Amino acid sequence: xxxxxxxxxxxxxxxxxxxxxxRDGQTLFEICTRLTMKHGSGSSRQAISQHLEVxxxxxxxxxxxxxxxxxxxIDTSPLRNIATRWPGNQ
Length: 90
Description:
The chain is α+β, with helices and mostly antiparallel strands. The protein is built from 5 helices and 2 strands; from the N terminus they run ααααββα. It has helices at residues 2-8, 11-22, 28-39, 45-57, 77-85; strands spanning 61-66, 69-74. One of its GO terms (molecular function) is DNA-binding transcription factor activity.
């Protein structure tokens, strides 16, 4: 669960998750383009790729390869696990 908090601590990674929430199943190129246009991000493709790896390690992003393309999908199940961990605190 610590990986989830670490992944969410970075504003660029939160922006990536926002973009995948808006339109799931994007390639690295599409994510980079949307981050630049909507968030003014100046991060390189390599930096965004590293952020995606952190999100994938935390279980917040899944990927699927189709030919030469790799598509990224948001997975909110780790967030649901956090929300249900302390049921008495609702």
